[in-house]
Each structure stands twice: as structure tokens, then as C-alpha cells.
Specification:
Blueprint (H helix, E strand, L loop, with lengths): L1 H7 L4 H9 L2 H25 L3 H12 L4 H9 L4 H31 L9 H25 L1 H27 L10 H24 L8 H12 L3 H11 L2
């Protein structure tokens, strides 16, 4: 919430109005995340043929939405924060339906098994509203109604947020996997395909929108949204729902 609040401080009402007037950026961004990214992940898994568990994990990462991390990175590279936050919110709702479809397909194709994954749409809406929409909207209102307060809040948070980002990623990297710590060789096995997915996702997220005439700043934003997924959600599904 703190990250999204800070990002909201950098969004002008004009930015949101422009997104509504020209929905092409959001539409192309959603197509890149919801269709192009899963296709890339499935292609990597089919061509390289890694350990089937890794293949399913690769698909699971690819079908999860973006999160506060992608929003923060977009802010740090001076991308379109309004577009990034909007994509995160909308994609978070849509993936309630797409995650079960793609994950069941991956389980069938690579492991020969089936599993029911059930998400509550209401819970998803509430979660996205509390974590993304409300903090960002609060930041936008502060920015536009009390600009002096926004400027005072911006400076200290500019240094705090990167530190928070580092802590979050350190926690994800060293999180124990279902009670047993992964062996070093497992990281070396999965790292190449993970990096390949990330490289191809960011590249596709940048070049695919160019086919639709999207300007470069928004292409950078979409590339970050496609390249950085909600790994916390992927971990939750893998450990709690798929065992």
C-alpha cells in the first residue's frame, strides 16, 4: 500500500483522463500480458523441455498479473505510472479467470494431472481495491488537491521504496520451498529458463506494442508490466493450492 500510495503521488488527473480517452495503450498492454506472455512461456517449456515441475512453475509465473514491483520499477525509469497501475488493477481481475485455465493446461501437458484452482472474484476485487486502487487514488488526490504536501511526502519515500523493493526480492529469493530448502543445483537448473522468460517477455512487451503505434514511453511501461509478475501470488498458488 505504501508503494502504491507513493506512485499515486506522481500521477496527475490528466494522465488518467488520457488513458480513458485513448484506451489503446491499456488494450495492447493487456493483450501482451494475457496472451503473448503465456505463449512465450509455453514455447520455452515445449522447446527446452525442462523438468516438468519447472515447466509448470514457468507457466504459473507467466500467467500471474503484475504487482507493486512493476509499478515501482516503472516509476524509477520514468515510465507511465498511470498506465502501469491501471494495467495492474485490470489484469488482476481478469487473471482470476485466466490463471486456472492456463495452470490446468500446464498440469495436463507437462505432468499429466489435473487440479482445480478456484479463486473468489469478490476476494480478488477487494484485495486489488485495498492494495492498488485505494492507495493510488489517495496519492492522486493528494497530488492534485494538496501539491505541497505531496512534494514533502515524495522526497523521503523516494529513498525508502527502493530499500523496500530490495527486502521483498531478498525474501522471495531465499524463501523456503514448502518446508525444504532448495539445493544450489536446483537454482542453476531453473535460472537459465527463468532469465530466458524474463528477457523474451520484456523484449516482446517493448516491440509488440510498436506494431500498434504505441509511443516509446508507454512501450517501456508495458515491457515492465509484461516482464515483472506477482511472484508472491505464484508462490501462494504453487505451495497452497497445488502442493
Amino acid at each position: 500500500e505504501l508503494i502504491t500510495l507513493r506512485l499515486g503521488l506522481s500521477i496527475r488527473l490528466e494522465d488518467l483522463k488520457n488513458l480513458i480517452k485513448d484506451p489503446k495503450n491499456i488494450t495492447v498492454g493487456l493483450l501482451s500480458q494475457l496472451i503473448l506472455l503465456p505463449l512465450i512461456a509455453f514455447s520455452i517449456a515445449w522447446i527446452i523441455e525442462p523438468n516438468p515441475l519447472y515447466a509448470v512453475g514457468l507457466i504459473l509465473i507467466a500467467v500471474c498479473p503484475g504487482g507493486a514491483t512493476s509499478n515501482l520499477v516503472t516509476f524509477m525509469i520514468n515510465g507511465n505510472v498511470a498506465l502501469s497501475v491501471s494495467l495492474t488493477a485490470v489484469n488482476g481481475i481478469i487473471t482470476i479467470y485466466t490463471i486456472p485455465i492456463f495452470t490446468r493446461l500446464a498440469l495436463n501437458v507437462f505432468l499429466g494431472r489435473d487440479s482445480d484452482i478456484d479463486f473468489s472474484l469478490w476476494e480478488a476485487v477487494v484485495r486489488i481495491t485495498l492494495i492498488t486502487v485505494l492507495p493510488a487514488a489517495t496519492g492522486v488526490l493528494i497530488r492534485n488537491w494538496w501539491p505541497q504536501i505531496a512534494r514533502r511526502m515524495e522526497q523521503p519515500m523516494r529513498y525508502v521504496l527502493p530499500v523496500m523493493l530490495f527486502i521483498v526480492y531478498a525474501g522471495v529469493l531465499f524463501l523456503e520451498d514448502g518446508g525444504s530448502s532448495p539445493q544450489p543445483q536446483e537454482y542453476f537448473q531453473v535460472l537459465p529458463i527463468a532469465l530466458l522468460l524474463n528477457f523474451l517477455a520484456i523484449s516482446a512487451g517493448f516491440f509488440f506494442p510498436a506494431l500498434f503505434g504505441i509511443e516509446k514511453r508507454n512501450r517501456y511501461t508495458i515491457a515492465i508490466e509484461v516482464g515483472l509478475q506477482n511472484s508472491t501470488l505464484a508462490l501462494l498458488i504453487a505451495l497452497s493450492m497445488l502442493n
